[in-house]
Specification:
Layout: H1 3-31, H2 35-38, E1 43-48, E2 54-57, H3 63-79, E3 90-93, E4 105-114, E5 117-127, E6 153-157, E7 160-161, H4 163-172, H5 176-203, H6 210-229, E8 234-242, E9 249-258, E10 261-265, H7 281-296, H8 304-307, E11 310-313, H9 332-335, H10 338-350, E12 365-369, E13 378-382, H11 411-417, E14 420-427, E15 443-449, E16 455-460, E17 481-484, E18 494-499, E19 505-508, H12 523-532, H13 537-544, H14 556-564
Parallel strand pairs: 10-11
Antiparallel strand pairs: 1-2, 1-5, 3-4, 3-6, 4-5, 6-7, 8-9, 9-10, 12-13, 12-16, 14-15, 15-19, 16-18, 17-19
Helix pairs in contact: 1-5, 3-7, 4-5, 7-10
């Protein structure tokens, strides 16, 4: 076979592998029971070689899932060497330090056998609706209060589900049908991925994945190093302050580019918190590396080889490298800000290609109702977001998460499976930071209960005190705000609280930062924003120097005077 033919065949096999992991992920979403799986798509899926190196991933969910899962399979192999695995086995864990950062994520790894020998591994992760304990609240003082901790163990033994483990899970969660259903979906999707791999190997007469996998990883590494070689050499530093729980948190990063790769050092970052906003190193690595890849090589495969060109270090037991048994349920509070932190370093190195800061961590709505004599109660997480930061040549995306890739959950779904009613869900006017390119808008939601009963509200929000910053002269986005419809009490940004019977919770999400001088924004674009309700006439005048009435009619003469003055 000629080299050209080999290259073509390798590309075809690569495309088929991507199709296999995409089908793996799609089947997980289709079969999932909880809204986080089937509606938000908060999942990851991938195929690994015998050594535990991720070869290919599905385009799903969040970098926090996929990039931490990319490192987690080696932990499974440390516990169960591949030579000891048997056909029909599958393994599970939610260990925050060996999987994807908190107990609410379940990860399953399945070996794929061919002619009696394990030739590959498929892995997947999903965020389950509940895992017991204090639920999604960050108020626990250690990981033991955050729910059921499942060490790396078998969930399937030679084709037989581990009913003992399933019984323990059912006894510890408010939503046993949803959680158990998601576990079965995790196991099934790996089997589907494995079946597709078998077809690929049959078609191309591959005895294993070793040669093909090694070639894919080698080419990926070379392409990543070629991209890094185009960057200037040096070290650049950035600092970000976020709200925190008991005190504000300072995140520091120094990004160094040299001939060996990109190296991120988080020295100076705040120490660990007493509350569950701490971030294990696996999740820190996942999001910090994602920030690099977004700017340096967004089109390259995301696998063990490209991720291996990026190193991340952090002081022991700082908030971005929390040690066991720190509480970590809200680890996204830290992790999802790391791409923006890294972007601030690269802005100094590569100029005007970096977007403004975004809302960062998701503004998910976590609500529950306590069980009574006739009803077990419910726990629901509905995924939503504020605005993304403006880009150097485009406005920011509104009500769109970055760096997470999670979909918003339709309000109709939430209302169908709970007693909740969403009275309002709309873009939040004037929340996007002003700039030549406007920051994405946040959104406002008003939620109540159809039943005559109070609700438990699990708050874990950021950007309430510290707004997303603009870049290159752009203004910050609006901070978030929480309140009761009755105005009868203050609603905190973090912690378990009660929404009284008959009352509503009003959630106003932050907007993304703006990019560039607001005076350079096209007045017609400002007028269009006003007409659509994105920007008020008052903000158009004050922030952009544009005179426009509520219908979007532009006064060009007055605008010229405002901008000249």
């Amino acid at each position: 076979m000629s080299d050209a033919t080999k290259n073509i065949q390798l590309q075809v096999i690569w495309s088929r592998l991507i199709s296999a992991v995409e089908e793996q992920a799609r089947s997980l979403i289709r079969a999932g029971f909880s809204t986080s799986t089937r509606e938000a798509g908060d999942v990851s899926a991938g195929v690994f070689n015998r050594q535990g190196d991720m070869i290919a991933q599905a385009v799903t969910g969040t970098p926090g899932h996929i990039n931490s899962m990319a490192r987690s399979v080696r932990h499974f192999l440390d516990e169960y060497p591949i030579e000891t695995m048997q056909e029909g086995d599958a393994f599970i864990t939610n260990d925050p330090w060996k999987a994807t950062g908190h107990l609410t994520d379940l990860s399953v790894v399945t070996p794929i056998f061919r002619n009696g020998r394990a030739v590959a591994l498929f892995a997947c992760t999903t965020h389950v609706v509940d895992i017991g304990g204090n639920g999604p609240s960050p108020e626990s003082r250690d990981v033991y209060g955050e729910g059921l901790f499942i060490p790396i163990m078998k969930i399937v033994d030679r084709g037989e589900m581990n009913e003992h483990l399933l019984k323990i899970v059912r006894a510890n969660v408010k939503e046993p049908i949803q959680v158990e259903g998601d576990i079965f979906a995790l196991v099934a999707c790996n089997d589907i991925g494995g079946a597709r791999l078998q077809k690929i190997m049959d078609e191309y007469r591959l005895p294993d994945l070793e040669t093909v996998g090694a070639e894919i990883l080698a080419r990926s590494k070379q392409a990543m190093m070629d991209a890094i070689a185009k960057l200037p050499r040096g070290t650049w530093r950035n600092h970000m302050r976020i709200d925190g729980y008991e005190a504000p948190i300072d995140l520091h990063a120094a990004v160094t580019v040299d001939e060996s790769g990109v190296h991120i050092d988080l020295e100076g970052t705040s120490p660990a918190s007493r509350y569950g906003i701490n971030c294990p190193m696996c999740y820190t690595e996942a999001y910090a590396a994602f920030g690099v890849k977004c700017l340096v090589a967004p089109g390259l495969p995301n696998n063990a080889a490209t991720l291996g060109c990026i190193t991340v270090t952090a002081p022991e037991d700082c908030i971005a490298n929390a040690s066991f048994p720190r509480p970590v349920v809200a680890r996204s509070t830290i992790g999802m800000f790391l791409p923006d932190l890294v972007f601030g370093c690269f802005e100094q190195a590569i100029g005007n290609v970096v977007p403004a800061e975004s809302t960062g961590t998701l503004w998910n709505i976590r609500l529950g109702a306590q069980a009574n004599g006739k009803d077990r109660g419910f726990m629901v997480t509905t995924f939503h977001s504020g605005g993304a930061g403006a880009r150097p040549h485009l406005d920011g995306l509104s009500a769109t998460p970055f760096p997470s890739g999670i979909r918003n959950v339709p309000v109709e779904v939430t209302e169908a499976i709970t007693s909740l009613v969403i009275w309002k869900k709309e873009f939040r006017q004037d929340s996007g930071g002003a700039g030549q390119h406007r920051g994405g808008l946040g959104q406002t939601m008003v939620i109540g209960n159809r039943e005559d009963a109070p609700l438990t509200f699990y708050a874990r929000y950021e950007r309430v005190e510290n707004a997303p910053k603009g870049r290159n002269g752009g203004r910050p986005g609006a901070t978030g705000r929480l309140s009761l419809g009755s105005g009868s009490a203050t609603v905190r940004a973090k912690g378990i609280q009660t929404i009284p019977e008959g009352d509503t919770i009003i959630i106003e999400m932050p907007g993304g930062g703006g990019h560039g001088d607001p005076n350079l924004r096209d007045p017609e674009a400002v007028a269009s924003d006003v007409a659509l309700g994105y920007v008020s006439p008052e903000a158009a005048r004050a922030q952009y120097g544009v005179a426009v009435d509520g219908s979007g009619t532009l006064d060009r003469d007055e605008t010229a005077r405002l901008r000249a003055g």
